[in-house]
Amino acid sequence: MSGLHDLLLLCVVLTNFWVLGTTRMSSTIRATAIQGTLLAALPVALHPGWSLHMLGLAAGTFLVKAVVLPTFLSWAIREAAVRREVEPLIGFSMSLTLGAMAVALSFGIAQHIPLPESASSLLIPVALSTVMVGLLVLTTRNKALSQVIGYLVLENGIYVFGLSQVERVPFLVELGVLLDIFVGIFIMGIVVFHINRAFDSLDSTRLTELKD
Amino acid sequence: MLGPFLTLLLLLAAAPALPGIATRTRAALTGRRGAPTLQLYRDLAKLLRKNVVYSRTTTPVFRLGPIVVVATVVVAATLLPLDGHTALFGFTGDLVAFTGLLGLGRFALVLAGLDTGSSFEGMGASREVTVSAFAEPALFLCFTVLVLATGELSLGGMLGERLAAVWGSTAPSLVLAAAALFMLALAETSRVPVDDPATHLELTMIHEVIVLDHSGPELAMILFGNAVKLALFAALVVSVLVPLGRLQPWLAGVVMLGGMGLVAVAVGIVESCMARLRMNRVPQFLVAAAALAVFGVILLLR
Amino acid sequence: MLLLLLVLLPAAMAGVAYLVRPVPLRLGCLVGTAFVHLAVVGWLWAVPLAPTLSGWLAIDPLGLLVLSVVSLLFAVVAVYAVGFLRTEPPRGGRVFVTGLLGFLAGSTLVAVSHHLALLWVGMETTTLALAPLVYHRHDRRSLEAVWKYLLLSSVGIALALLGTFFVAAAQTSGRPLILEDLVSGGAGLQPALLRTAFVFLLVGYGTKMGLAPLHAWKPDTYGEAPSLVSGLMAGGLTSCAFLGLARITEVTMAAGQAAFVEPLLLAFGLVSLVVAAAFIIGQADLKRLLAYSSVEHMGLLVLGLGLGGVGPYGTVLHLVNNGLTKGFMFLAVGNVVLVTGSASSEAARGILRRLPVSGVVLLLGLFAVTGSPPFGLFLSEFTILNAAIAQGHPWIALAVVLLLALIFVGMAAVVLEVVYRPAETPAPAPRESLLLVAGPILLLLAVLLLGLWVPPPLHRVLLDAARGLGVAP
Fold it and tell me: What is the ipTM of this complex?
C-alpha cells in the first residue's frame, strides 16, 4: 500500500460512503465536489512526469467536477429550497450496508477477472465500486436532485476506470466526454428546476402520470 | 508482571480525568470556562461519603448492577496491553471475552435500571440495548481488521509488538479501524452524537436515564465505570494508531497516557462541533462505523 | 475533410440559429442546412471517400446507409417543421431549431465516426440535443417524460462509455479504438474483456434504441414529444444507436465470439417483440402505439443481426425501411394532433373526413408499419424470417410470425378506429397545408418503391454492409 494514488483512491471510496450516508443535500454536493478534486489529482498522481495531456485533463476535470457542477447544483438546491432527503426506498442504514457490500464485490471481481494492468492495483476495484454506488443512489433516492447526484457519482466511477486507459483514449475525446457530462448535468438541473416549479416539490415519486 | 500491573493501576487512577478533559475542551471551544478538569475526582469523593438510598420497588438486582459494572470494566482492562508489550492476562480469543465483559456490564446496568420499575429507566434501557446491538458487530469488525493485520487472536498479541511490526504495510486499514473505534467510543460511553451527557431532559437521554435512581457510592461506581470504559476505548484507539510496540515499556506507557488524553480532547472537539443525532439516525451512525471497518477488512483481504 | 465539414456545418448552424432574431431567417437556416446536408450525402453515394483524421472519420457502407436515412428524414422533418412552427403558439422555436440542428450534427458524427469513443460523443450529443425538444410543450406530462428520458438515456449512455473503455482495455495492438484495427486485430483482443465490453455496450446502446426490457422511456417520450420530434427519434436516433451496436457486434464477431453474441441478440430481439405485442393490444394512444411498434422493429433488427446468414441483409434493409416508415407515420399522426389536439383514439376520430390526405397516409401507413406487402418492410421482415429458418431456428420464425400477426391486429384496431369511426360532434375540416403533407407522401411513396424494387446502387451498398456484419468465425 503505497503512493499518493492509492491514498486518493481510498478517499474516493470514503466520499462514496459519505454520499450514501448523509441526509443533507448540501452535504452530498460537498462530497461530490471533494470527489471531483480527488479525481482531478488522480491522473497526475498515476503518471508522474508532467505532460500537457495530464495537466489539461486534471485542470478540465477540476474545473468541471469540483467547481462548476457543484456550484450549479447548489444553486439548484437553493432554488428548489430542498434541504434534506427523505428516507430513501431502502433506508440509509441499508444503503450504507449495500455500499460496503458493493466495495467488497468490486474487490472480489477485480481479483477474479483479468482486468487491465494499471499503475495502481486499487484503480479498477474503486472504479467498479463507485459505479455501483452511483447506480444505488440513482435508483433508490426519491428526490430528483439526488438522482442527478447519483448519475454524477456513476460518471465519476467510469472516469476512474477510464484513467486506466488514459494512454489509449486521446485528449480531445476526453474533453468531449467531459463536456458532454457537463452539459448533461446542466440540462438535468434545468429540468429539476422546472419540476420544482410545476410540481412544487422535487419528489420524483410524484412523476407517475404517464402510464399504460 | 509488575510493569503491566502498574500501568493498569495508572490507567484506573487516570481514567476519571478523561471525561473532565473532554468537557473542558468542549467548554473552551464553545466560549465558556467549564468545570475544572479534575472535577470527576471531587464528585467521586463526595459521592463515596454519602449515604445510599434504595427505592422500595428495587430488589438485590439493583444493588448488583454498579458492582458488576465496575468489576467487568476493570477485568476488561487487564486484557489490554497498556504498555504496548504485554497484557496482565491474556489467552487466545480473549477479544470475545473483552466484548463479552463490556456486554455483561451493560446488561447488569440495564437490569438494574429495569428493576426500578420506572418508565424512564425502561425507555433508556431499550435505547441502550438498541445502540449496543449495532455497536457490537462494529466492534467485532474492528477486531477483525486487527486479527487480519497481525494474525494473532489475543488482544495482547494484536495490539502489542506484532502490530508495531506490520504497522507500516497495513496503515490505511488501521486508520479506518481507529476511526471506527473512535465512533464506537462515542457510542459506548454515551457522548455526542449518540447521547448528550450535558442534557437534563430525561426523554432525550440514553445512558443517564438508566442510572437515575442510583445514589451515593453506587453512583460513584457507575461514574467511575463509565470513565474507565472511555479510557479503555481511548487506549484501543491509541494502540491501533501508534506503534507502541517499538518503544520501551515505560515510554510506551507514557505515550499511551498522553494519547488517551488527546483522544479525550478529540471527543471534546467532536462534542462541540456536532449536535446530538435524532434517535433513528443513531443506528445509521453505527452502520457507518461498521462500513468503515468493513472497508478496512476488504483492503486487507486483497 | 468533407466528412468533418459535414459534422461541423449543422453544429455551426445550430449556433447561428440560436443567435439569429428573425424567425424566417432561423427557419431558412434549418431548411437550408437540411438540404445542403442531403446534397452532400447524395454526392457521397456517387463518389467514395478516403478516411480522414488518421482513420477517425470514414464512410463505410453501413455508415452511409444510416447517414442517408437520417439526412433524408431530417430534410422532410425540416420542411414539416416550417409548417408546424407556424401553427404552434408563436414562440419562434429558437430552442427547437437549435436542438434539431444539434441532433443532425450529433447523428452525422455517429454515422461517420470510426473511432468508438468519438461515436459515443456523437451519441451523447444527440441525446442531449433532443431533450429540450421533448419538453417543447412545457406541461407536466412532457416534464415527466423528459425527466425519464434524460435519466434512463444518460445511465444507458454512461454504461456504453464504460463498455467503450473496456474495449480499449481489451485492445493490445493497432490504433486504439479505431474500428478497422479492432476488426483486423480481432484475434489479439482479450476475450473476457471484450465480452464484458459487449454486454455493457449492448445494454447502453440498447437503451438508446429502445430494446426491451430497456425501453421504459420510449412510450412516454414518444407520446409527449411533438410528433415530428418523435418521428426523428424513431427513424433517426434509433438508427444511430443501432449503428453503435452494429459496430461492436462487428468487432466481437471478428474476434471469434459469435457464439457468445448471437444468443444475447436473439434473446433481446424476441423479448422486444413479445413486450411490443403485449403492450400494443389495447393501446389507445396513437403515438404510444407507434412507440411500441418502434420497440418491435428494433427487436427485429437485433434478431436479424443475431441470426447470421442472410439475416444481416434483412436487418440493413429493415433499417432503411423502418426509418422512412416511422418518419411518415409520426408526421401523419402529427397532422392529426394539430387538428384534434390529442393523439388518443377517443379524441381523434373520423380523420378520413377531416384530413383526407393524412387519413389515407395513416391508413396505408398501418399496412406499411406492420409489414404487409407491397411495402418495403414486408421484404425485410421476410428476409429475416428466411434467415431464421435457414439458420436452423424454425421456432423463432414461428414465434415472430405469430407476434407480428398479434401486432397487426392491435394496431389495426386503433388506426381503423381513428380513421373511419365518425366523430361525435362534426368538426370543421381545415385545409391541409402542403408543407405538412408533402413530406409524408414522399416517404410513403419511397417505402412503397422499396417494397417493389430495390435500386441497384442501394442493393450493392446493402450487400456490402451486410457482409461486414455477417462475419462468422
Answer: 0.90
